[in-house]
Design goal:
The protein has 154 residues and is an alpha+beta fold. Helices cover 40% and strands 21% of the residues.
Amino acid sequence: MIGYPSLASAAYDQGRFAATHLLSGVCDHHLVDYIPTGIYTSPEISSVGRTERELTEARVPYEVGHAYFKSLARAQITGRTVGILKLLFQRDTLEILGIHCFGDQAARSSTSARRSWPSGVKPTASSTSSIPRSISDHGRGYRVAALNGLNRLA
């Protein structure tokens, strides 16, 4: 049953997907489309959703929002200011299509983001920009990146 990306965390979702299909004959493809991956190096690299290359090849109109770690309070407090959080979202619907992160605790950030999305609910850049976050938390980067991308549309 295990396939790409061959991670224990992904196997959990893949198992739920297979069991749902077996018992009810229907599947929630959202579970498969948004499996977070992480590379535990220093700094870490993580990804969930589609890449810019995939969106460009599929001719999906998208926008990019960035949050540089050097501008985030948590990174400044810890002294780990190298990194970036990138949100890719659909220009018309604002649906978040991909999250990519490079830096301290990047794998934790993308996994947390994916787990916060209720099954079947597609998060948007506008809903992400309005989520209150602790000022010293890396989660604030999502709000900063969402606002950065939304400002590019204006």
